[in-house]
């Protein structure tokens, strides 16, 4: 079984690669090491995978290639992530990497017999939809990033509908755990608390997020790839919905340090709350989140400390 993972050096992609290699699959990873955050972090993410003979890394931008490997499954995770940076001139980076790149892949694989094309979508497609967010809720993204993730979902649907590409889109809800991107809240908060620096909270901290542990997201990907289901969308939400203030409180307990918090105005593009209805993925893919927020945060802090041993 040969598998392509795009975005293989990133936070989620690298975990997926590790799990697929652990299960004995042959994995081809593609990543262009975008400079959104440090290359060294991504190199560290795939350090173990690179030691495995079943892993081959192709360092290349999807947009610069017309040929992709012959594989049985595709997991498309490459994207320009991050909600807040998606305004203004940088929107070009988002349309290029989040919309044009997937269209290239779908065009290529439409003429090949692949078993599944799993796309990493996002809860950002919902915007401020009513809670809990359901797959058939009205989709009104409130950030340019969300617009691009939704456009890519629509491309998945139309290549399935017109060409029979067996796509499945998974809408991840705020993923966290070891290797979380350095621009994401939990990573930034833990770093600040351990260094005695100030945490900046956008808004009053009462906004909530449904946090999803990385291992649960990886499992959802594998279940989707192995299922017979095509042309569908599933929520992947950890069921650990807490406010930003509560999150900081938990991190203070785990690190046994007090946080210094500065509240500033809410950022454009941030949704107020997220909460996934996961009945569809539970019924159809038999997926349930296993890691609760306190346990997941502990694992993140342990990882962070092991990475920065001086703390
Ligand atoms: P990440 O930035 O750590 O990983 C994405 C990787 O894709 C990066 O290593 C980047 O270099 C690569 N990449 C981007 N454009 C590329 C291109 N054109 N060609 C080749 N490689 C390219 O991000 P992540 O947090 O691991 O997110 C992975 C996916 O999950 C993304 O599609 C993201 O939109 C989605 N997602 C993430 C979250 C989350 O909470 N982290 C939530 C919802 C959805």
Could you please describe the fold and organization of this structure?
With 311 residues, the protein is an alpha/beta fold. The protein has a domain at 2-173 and 214-237 and 276-289: NAD(P)-binding Rossmann-like Domain (Rossmann fold, 3-Layer(aba) Sandwich). Helices cover 37% and strands 19% of the residues. The protein is built from 9 helices and 12 strands. It is globular and about 55 Å long. The structure holds nicotinamide-adenine-dinucleotide. Residues 6-7, 9-13, 30-34, 36, 42, 61-63, 77-81, 97, 101, 120, 122, 149, 172, 174-175, 181 line the site of nicotinamide-adenine-dinucleotide (NAD).
Quick tags:
single chain, 311 residues, alpha/beta, Rossmann fold, three-stranded mixed sheet, 12 strands, binds nicotinamide-adenine-dinucleotide
What is the fold's blueprint, element by element?
Blueprint: E1 2-6, H1 11-22, E2 26-31, H2 39-45, E3 55-59, E4 73-76, H3 91-109, E5 116-122, H4 144-163, E6 167-172, E7 175-176, H5 185-195, E8 198-202, E9 208-213, H6 214-226, E10 232-236, E11 240-243, H7 244-255, E12 260-264, H8 279-285, H9 293-307
Helix pairs in contact: 1-6, 3-4, 5-7, 5-9, 7-9
The structure holds nicotinamide-adenine-dinucleotide.
CATH-level-2 architecture of the domain at 2-173 and 214-237 and 276-289: 3-Layer(aba) Sandwich
Taken from the alpha-carbon principal axes, the silhouette is: globular
Q: How does the helix and strand content classify structurally?
A: alpha/beta
Weakly predicted, low-confidence segments: none
Q: Could you give the distance between the termini?
A: 42 Å
Beta-strand percent range = 15-25%
Number of strands: 12
User: So, the CATH homologous superfamily of the domain at 2-173 and 214-237 and 276-289?
Assistant: NAD(P)-binding Rossmann-like Domain
Name the bound molecules. nicotinamide-adenine-dinucleotide
Radius of gyration (Å) = 19 Å
Mean pLDDT: 97
Quickly name the level 1 CATH class of the domain at 2-173 and 214-237 and 276-289: Alpha Beta
Share of helix, binned:
25-40%
């Amino acid at each position: 079984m040969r598998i392509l993972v795009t975005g293989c050096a990133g936070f989620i992609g690298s975990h997926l690669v590790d799990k697929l290699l652990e299960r004995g699959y042959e994995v081809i990873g593609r990543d262009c090491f975008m400079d959104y955050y440090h290359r060294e972090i991504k190199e560290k993410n795939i350090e173990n995978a690179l030691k495995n003979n079943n892993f081959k890394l192709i360092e290349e931008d999807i947009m610069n290639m017309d040929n992709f490997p012959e594989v049985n499954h595709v997991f498309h995770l490459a994207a320009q992530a991050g909600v807040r940076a998606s305004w203004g001139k940088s929107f070009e980076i988002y349309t290029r990497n989040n919309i044009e790149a997937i269209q290239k892949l779908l065009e290529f694989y439409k003429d090949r017999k692949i078993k599944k094309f799993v796309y990493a979508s996002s809860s950002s497609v919902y915007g401020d939809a009513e809670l809990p967010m359901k797959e058939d809720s009205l989709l009104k993204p409130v950030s340019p990033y969300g617009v691009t993730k939704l456009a890519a979902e629509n491309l998945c649907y139309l290549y399935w509908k017109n060409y029979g590409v067996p796509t499945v889109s998974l809408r991840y809800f705020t993923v966290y755990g070891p290797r979380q991107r350095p621009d994401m809240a939990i990573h930034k908060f833990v770093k600040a608390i351990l260094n005695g620096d100030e945490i900046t909270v956008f808004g009053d901290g009462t906004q909530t997020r449904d946090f999803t542990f990385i291992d649960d997201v990886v499992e959802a990907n594998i279940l989707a790839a192995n299922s017979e289901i095509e042309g569908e969308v599933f929520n992947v939400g950890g069921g650990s919905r807490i406010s930003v203030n509560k999150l900081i409180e938990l991190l203070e307990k785990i690190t046994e340090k007090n946080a210094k918090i500065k509240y500033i105005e809410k950022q454009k593009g941030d949704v107020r709350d997220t909460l996934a209805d996961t009945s569809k993925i539970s019924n159809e893919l038999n997926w349930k989140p296993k890691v609760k927020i306190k346990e997941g945060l502990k694992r993140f802090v342990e990882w962070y400390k092991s990475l920065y041993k001086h703390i």
